[in-house]
Every structure is written in C-alpha cells, then in structure tokens.
Amino acid sequence: MLIHTGEKSHRCEVCKKSFSVKSSLNKHILIHTGEKPYMCEVCKKSFTSRSNLKEHIHIQTRDKSHMCEVCKKSFSLKSSLNRHMFIHAGQKPYMCEVCNKSFSQKNNLNLHTLIHTGEKAHVCEVCKKSFNQKCNLNKHLLIHTGEKPYMCEVCKKLFSHKDNLNNHMLIHTGEKSHRCEVCKKSFSVKSSLNKHMLIHTGEKPYMCEVCKKSFTNKSNLKRHMLIHTVEKPHV
Fold it and tell me: Locate the C2H2-type domain: which residues (predicted)?
C-alpha cells in the first residue's frame, strides 16, 4: 500500500533520499559503500544489484555469430556488425548538426550533442553534482566511496581513476612527451606544460580576493593567503 500512499519512511542517512520499502534503501546504500555483492561466475565482475548482474550475463551468453574479419569481435546482430565496420573503414556517417563534427557510431554522436545542449541527466545522490554521461557519474562516485580500484604495479599506489594511474606511471617510465616550444623544457603530463606556459605568457589567473594580487599558479596563491589568515601577535 505504500506505493499508492506515497509514504517513504526509510531514509538514507548519507544523502537523505527516502524510500517506501526497506529493501530499496538497502540496495541504494550500496552506492555509497561501494559494495558489489553480485558476482558473475564466468568473468568474476561484480555488480551492486542482481538486475545488473542478470543483464551482464545475458550479454555474455547470447549468440554472437556475426564476427568482424578485421579484429575478430563478434556481434549478435548483423546490423551491429555493419555499424562496427565503419570504425575500420574510417567512415563517419553521423554528423553533428551544430559543429559538423562527424562520428562513426550513432551513440558517440548522441553523447557529443550533450556538450551543446548542456544536458546533465545523471545526478550524484550524495552531492547533487550532475554529469552528461553515466560513466562519468560512476567515476565521480568513487570520490564518495573512497574506492581506488586502479593500482600501480611498480609501487602499489592506488588510484580512483585510470587516467590518474596513467599519469602516475610516467613517473616510473620517465617519459616526458609534452615539450615547451619556448624553452624546450619537457613535461610528463599536458597539465604541467599548461601551467609552465603561464611563465612565458605572463598570465596570472589566480587572484587573491583580499588584496587583488595575482599569481601564475594556485599553490603560490595558497601560500600568499597565509599572510591574510595567519594571526600576527602584537609586539
């Protein structure tokens, strides 16, 4: 009867979202804890809900008799194979009506159009931050759960995102592929090069809200702020 009355007496203590039945609350809590109790017996991948596991098993077990002769990837439908072949042929038949950028897959075009529409339908239940793609929301949730599934094989340091692990690995390899065209200094990640370029351009995008003094990087601004915040005893 709770469905008909609209009563939701079971409340999440983390994000305050309410549910009409306790079982729904229990399932919801798994988002915050990062727990994935439902595991695929074939590939050992885990899921937060039984329905997601069932969907995964269905994808794994269904007939895939249409195989790509180039990369050997298989598909259950001939139409899916035909769409996949655009990747190898270099064809990009799906074009954005706004910026004319082309894509080989329709779903990639759909994701791209969200940039122009500004639509962010995937909302974090914890902090209410919105994302235009579900995968980006899933990555973001790792911040709240504290989960760090990506481990460096060299020093065993853990990371919540694969991009962060990839950047970290450059420390061990010593690779510095991002080079300053002005002074020829090299950097392992593009963001470090971008920060370095401010030295040459003279740009100072970080401004103190108290005295309006500007700085080339955020760390210098933080050090400067201590002047305003640290108590100075009267001599």
Answer: 10-37, 38-65, 66-93, 94-121, 122-149, 150-177, 178-205, 206-233
